[in-house]
UniProtKB/TrEMBL annotation:
PANTHER family: 2-NITROPROPANE DIOXYGENASE, 2-NITROPROPANE DIOXYGENASE-LIKE PROTEIN. It comes from the Bacteria. InterPro entries: Aldolase_TIM (IPR013785), NMO (IPR004136). Keywords: Flavoprotein, FMN, Monooxygenase, Oxidoreductase. It comes from Pseudofrankia asymbiotica. This is Nitronate monooxygenase.
Length: 328
């Protein structure tokens, strides 16, 4: 597939990339080969810091990514409350010591990390599930925001606002560049996001189902075969909703919590180590694993760079056709 004409937006200009297409920072999947392939095609690839067991391993992964592409790429640093939190300070130093200048934060507030990153010339993109959180992140000083609609994989928040409303609401409220996330898998989605006021899209599930994605082929085949109906929302009674693939494990989690169970009753079912086995071994019922409603739009497993090119070409075509079709 031939290279797509550059699609410039305030987001691409801010981060020095060619196309406003960002690869989601997915746990266990955001490794060098995938991130480099997305960046080499003109998008923004993202290495996931906590996929690496230690900060030293993250340095190695960043070095591997830089050997595969000379284009900009970012690192995702997910910040979540924990009894035994990861050594975030050491991970931050691993990021800046290797010369990375783009970081995506998610989970808790990025504010405790911003001074350090700003002092080292790192621009932060913070992932938010509501306009109010995006405004707080903007006030705190992030460079850009990723707005996650209810369609997304992982944690969509508790407001249940889909992108069709959330994206233009964010556009009305924010003064910094932002990208839309949740439900995006093709050029129609990118075109729609731009028309709604976003400056690009973040795609996780679409890139999870690419040739460079380091997950088992069984996972990719399931995504291709699945529809938008094949996800579960777990932890709803706990006000910590997560969208995951529908399987025997997530069905059981939903049942236990709906019957009045507590987190302790499902703790073993939702262990991250079990979800990792799904990606590594292809046992689709080994644990829970995140996937978005966008799987209903995914019908193949192409190279990640081809996904970037295809999405941008389709967006150009969709926007041009719309203009012609509605011309006076």
């Amino acid at each position: 597939m031939s290279a797509a004409s550059a699609l410039r937006t305030p987001f691409t200009e801010l981060f020095g990339i060619e196309h406003p297409v960002v690869q989601g920072g997915m746990m266990w999947a955001g490794r060098a080969e995938l991130a480099a392939a997305v960046s080499a095609a003109g998008g923004l690839g993202v290495v996931t810091a906590l996929t690496q067991p230690t900060p030293a391993d993250l340095v190695t992964e960043i070095t591997r990514t830089r050997a595969l592409t000379d284009r900009p790429f970012g690192v995702n640093l997910t910040i979540l409350p924990s009894i035994n939190p990861p050594p975030y300070d050491a991970y931050r130093h691993a990021i800046v010591d290797t010369g990375v200048t783009i970081v995506e934060t998610a989970g808790a507030s990025p504010e405790p990390h911003l001074d350090f990153f700003r002092d080292h010339g790192v621009r932060v993109i913070h992932k938010c599930t509501s306009v109010r959180h995006a405004l707080k992140a903007e006030k705190a000083g992030v460079a850009a925001v990723s707005i996650d609609g209810f369609e997304c994989a992982g944690h969509p928040g508790e407001d249940d606002i889909p992108g069709l409303v959330l994206v233009p609401a964010a556009a009305d409220a924010l003064s910094i560049p932002f990208i839309a996330s949740g439900g995006f898998a093709d050029g129609r989605g990118l075109a729609a996001a731009l028309v709604l006021g976003a400056h690009g899209v973040n795609m996780g599930t679409r890139f999870l189902c690419s040739q460079e994605s380091p997950v088992a082929d069984e996972v990719k085949r399931r995504i291709v075969a699945a529809t938008e109906l094949d996800t579960n929302l777990i932890f709803r009674p706990l006000r910590n909703t997560a969208r995951v693939a529908k399987n025997s494990v997530s069905d059981e989690v939903v049942r236990v919590l709906a019957d009045g169970g507590s987190f302790a009753d499902v703790r073993d079912l939702v262990a991250g180590s079990r979800g990792r086995l799904v990606f590594e071994n292809g046992d689709l019922d080994a644990g829970i694993w995140g996937v978005g409603l966008a799987q209903g739009l995914i019908r193949d497993v192409p190279p990640a760079g081809e996904i970037v090119t295809r999405v941008v070409q389709e967006a150009h075509a969709v926007l041009a056709t719309a203009l012609r079709g509605f011309a006076a």
